[in-house]
Amino acid sequence: MLADTIAAISTAPGEAAISVLRVSGPAAFEVAAKVTRTRAPLKPRRVGLGEVVDAEGHVIDHAMIILFRGPASYTGEDVVELHCHGGVLVTRRVLELLLAAGARAADPGEFTQRAFLNGKMDLTQAEAVMDLIHAQSTLAMRAANEQLDGSIGREANAMRGELIEVLAHIEAYIDFPEEDISPDVGSAMVARLDAIIQRARRVLATAEHGRILRQGARTVICGEPNVGKSSLLNVLLGFERAIVSSTAGTTRDTIEEMLQVHGLPLRLVDTAGLRDSSDEIERHGIARTGKEIERADLMIEVVDATRPAHEVQRVTSDLEDDRRLLVLNKADLGVHPSWHGGISVSCVTMDGLETLRATIRDIVLRHSGQTSSDHAIAINARHKVCFERCAASLQACREALLGNVAPELTAFEAREALQALGDVVGQVDIEEVLDVVFSSFCIGK
To answer: Looking at residue 331, what DSSP letter applies?
Structure first.
């Protein structure tokens, strides 16, 4: 695969001021030379002005051309970037010329995959590239940048370094069985394993925070009809997303939108009002409300604060109490004295909304295992599986040491833990794993 020269459009589809096309591989400079014409020779890492021409010499576009000689490039190979005018037709035509000149159309994520294969980044950093592109909140963006800087990879490699020293002692005993492991050495190895296990557990504790940063905390707004659920959705979003009407049953299906609250991404879901209804469509919407509540990370129950508490039909749910947030809406009209607890808000005057946002932030952070916005490490689902395998193998290795099990079995568990840590950063020979990771990338990255 690395013997091929690849090309792709690296900017988003559609019209723009400029579009960027990227070429990478051993023949990148030759391919670019076939389709461009410049007045002066181009120098690596210097911007040059030229023309993109077809086989007959007709000018297709004027472009800025930048050469990057490997290994000092994004992919570690020779790379050429063409900065053209951002029309759809002209961009597509330039790509066609590059492919006709000998390049192959790049697969999704192939540029970053080549950077990984050429040692420019580890697998966690490659994944962080896509996390950064998909980030929908400030904290998600910062977490992706931390990972791109190598925070997860450094942690995994530090654990590997400590574990290799333990494995070296075990392997030495296997090679030289006449040299018994003294009790002091055995205790020291167990203590080292305990320290590595604790590090693995600390990393695993960030998995939920990582999920929320990447996917958003699923936050369901529910309650009776006409209590202001859609109004609350609209004011939190800052625009009119849901239809607001005094007619009960206006919202008949779930409405889902992403927003960020104090830098945290929320997947906000407005639901149909809970009541007994003879309307079949509304009944389906109410049934869907129950399913959304079951999937929720946080449930915001909205009630009409002007009504007595005993007259309100409360939402029943198996969610823990500290994942349920009571919002007393229409507080500008007065809160009935029978209500205790909850957050008083008004979607008309906007009173109480900042308190609501702060409370949402605190609940989400608490349940994601964070007490603040500290997120130097926030692992994804793949990392979680690897660290879980590592922790399980380390625990088995520890028990084998304490139980005087055959050293070969003890060493086997230590090697399994090492393999799991190697999988985190991509020190693997399994092509299927890499294909899964990079298949989610966009073309040109």
So the answer is: G
| Residues paired with 343 in a beta bridge | 327
The Cα–Cα gap between 219 and 389 comes to 31
**Model confidence over 87-140: pLDDT tens digits?**
999 999 999 999 999 999 999 999 999 999 999 999 999 999 999 988 888 888
150: DSSP letter: T
pLDDT at position 372: 58
Q: What pTM value is reported for the model? A: 0.78
Pairing of strands 79-86, 16-24: antiparallel
Instruction: Please enumerate in sequence order all residues whose Cβ is within 8 A of that of 51, keeping only pairs 6 or more positions apart, or say none.
Output: 36, 37, 38, 59, 60, 61, 62, 63
Contact 143, 137 (CB under 8 A): no
C-alpha 69: how far from its chain's center? 31
User: Between 343 and 318, where is the model more confident?
Assistant: 343
Number of other CB atoms surrounding residue 442 within 10 Å: 15
Q: Domains (ranges, CATH) in the chain?
A: 6-122 (3.30.1360.120), 125-206+378-425 (1.20.120.430), 213-367 (3.40.50.300)
> Is the separation of the CB atoms in 229 and 309 below 8 Å?
no
